[in-house]
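Title: Comparing notes on inverse folding

I've been comparing how different people in this forum approach sequence design from structure. To keep things fair, I'm posting one structure and asking everyone to reply with a full sequence. Here's the target:
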């Protein structure tokens, strides 16, 4: 049952993780009218598009049982239950696909609105204040066989194991040794799965040493100075072929070996989900020690759009926060308190726990460099549009044009200075990032390849823009959003207004 107070200001929270639940609970306690939207439990069709995580192409059939999935997902989120008990209006299985505010491009809009959708319909939610707690998404890198069922990434694996209590595999090889990888390995062991190996391209383990020791004591083998040659299998993962690398990250001939497994989990890192903040027009900054691009925020987690706040992983990810959600929760509470203080419901508050940039796995340059050395450039980087690394850096036209001999002279060098530093331009010329996953599989690798090929600092590469809807929504869901009878009757004239007939001269 939701909070029925219609006189207080409406706070909308997007994201039902630790930060979002903390914000919603604090806001409701302080007298705000709060709605919380969370896209879990997800429909299997959305998960198959890797939204919001990289689930890969092997999704267990149990996910089709919506009632069972709902019980598992809701039962695994105790803070969400606390929000319900506090009177928060909780909408689960609902994604936020856009954010709209009155302005020059929305002159007809009178109030702030978020576009929401479930599996059946879409609608608009009015709000006075918006706290975005969108979490992070998987940063993935391609290798031969990465399209096979059984290849997924750490956030996808964590969601399946924690929220949905299913994975579809039992023997994992985890790529990466930061806290993201170690956390995933521990969760897999706790769920009764076998971790065959943790693979690290560097000479030492990156993440928490005590957690790493706990895993090795449990029998998990750590393979250092090692990279991926390929994943083997026909209809699914059967094994992974690895090779040792030297100090220059080049493969050492004769050191190839195979580890049998049925699941390969990419844990190269995660990056903040910034889509909704970006389409709102919030100012962004590049901070590699916090996971790359993220919204600028004050100590109270307020963005440059006064009514919008960003908390949790969406405001930055560090190795420390991957293991401890305390900072994320305090950020959520701080944002809610500040909103309440603006409305006179709470005394003015100082900032919450500061998120100090620390050791970070971002960007995973060593992994990508070793991949190119061991696998070459003829590896698909964009699954949706089937664009390879070579085609990307050579700025080859899309394959469906059958124009293999047509490309700008010299590839990237044939572009102007601005073009060489623009992911959007590269996307238009090659279609890498234009697929149904909305670039979630290739966006980060494309940025890294572009920076490396042009010898440009990653901070100086203009990242690709985002467009509404920021989640892949079926047209049968989107069309239902209040098309008026007038629009339906006169739709041709919206594009070509009728004019008085003028005789030809």
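Reply #1:
Here's my take.
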């Amino acid at each position: 049952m939701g909070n029925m107070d219609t006189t207080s200001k409406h706070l909308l929270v997007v994201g039902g993780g630790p930060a979002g639940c903390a914000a919603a609970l604090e806001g409701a306690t302080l007298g705000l009218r709060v709605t919380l939207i969370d896209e879990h439990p997800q429909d299997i069709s959305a998960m198959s598009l890797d939204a919001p995580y990289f689930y890969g192409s092997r999704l267990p059939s149990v996910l089709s049982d919506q009632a069972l999935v709902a019980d598992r997902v809701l039962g695994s989120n105790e803070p969400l239950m606390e929000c319900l008990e506090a009177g928060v209006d909780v909408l689960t299985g609902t994604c936020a696909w856009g954010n709209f505010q009155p302005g020059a491009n929305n002159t007809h809009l009178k109030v702030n609105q978020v576009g929401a959708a479930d599996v059946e319909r879409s609608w608009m939610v009015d709000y006075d204040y918006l706290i975005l707690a969108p979490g992070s998404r998987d940063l993935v890198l391609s290798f031969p066989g990465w399209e096979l069922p059984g290849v997924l990434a750490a956030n996808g694996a964590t969601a399946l194991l924690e929220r949905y209590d299913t994975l579809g595999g039992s023997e994992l090889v985890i790529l990466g040794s930061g806290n993201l990888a170690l956390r995933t390995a521990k969760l897999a062991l706790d769920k009764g799965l076998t971790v065959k190996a943790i693979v690290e391209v560097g000479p030492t383990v990156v993440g928490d040493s005590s957690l790493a020791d706990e895993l090795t004591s449990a029998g998990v083998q750590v393979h250092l100075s090692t990279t991926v040659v390929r994943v083997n299998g026909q209809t699914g993962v059967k094994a992974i072929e690895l090779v040792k690398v030297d100090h220059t990250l080049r493969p050492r001939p004769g050191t190839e070996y195979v580890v049998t497994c049925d699941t390969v989990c990419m844990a190269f890192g995660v990056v903040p989900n910034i889509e909704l903040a970006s389409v709102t027009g919030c100012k962004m900054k590049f901070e590699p020690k916090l996971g790359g691009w993220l919204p600028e925020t004050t100590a109270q987690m307020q963005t440059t759009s006064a009514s919008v706040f960003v908390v949790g992983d969406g405001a930055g990810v560090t190795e420390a926060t991957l293991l401890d959600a305390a900072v994320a929760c305090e950020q959520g509470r701080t944002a809610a308190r500040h909103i309440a203080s603006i409305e006179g419901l709470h005394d003015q508050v100082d900032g919450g726990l500061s998120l100090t940039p620390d050791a970070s796995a971002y960007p995973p340059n060593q992994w990508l460099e070793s991949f190119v050395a061991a696998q070459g450039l003829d590896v698909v980087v964009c699954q949706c549009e089937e664009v390879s690394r070579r085609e990307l850096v050579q700025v080859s036209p899309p394959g469906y044009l059958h124009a293999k001999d047509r490309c700008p002279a010299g590839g990237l060098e044939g572009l102007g200075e601005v073009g060489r530093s623009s992911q959007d331009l590269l996307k238009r010329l090659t279609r890498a990032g234009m697929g149904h996953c909305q670039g979630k599989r290739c966006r980060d690798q494309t940025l890294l390849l572009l920076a490396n090929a042009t010898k440009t600092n990653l901070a100086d590469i203009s990242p690709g823009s985002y467009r509404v809807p920021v989640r892949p929504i079926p047209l049968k869901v989107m069309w239902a959003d209040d098309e008026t009878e007038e629009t339906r009757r006169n739709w041709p004239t919206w594009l070509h207004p009728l004019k008085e007939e003028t005789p030809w001269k």
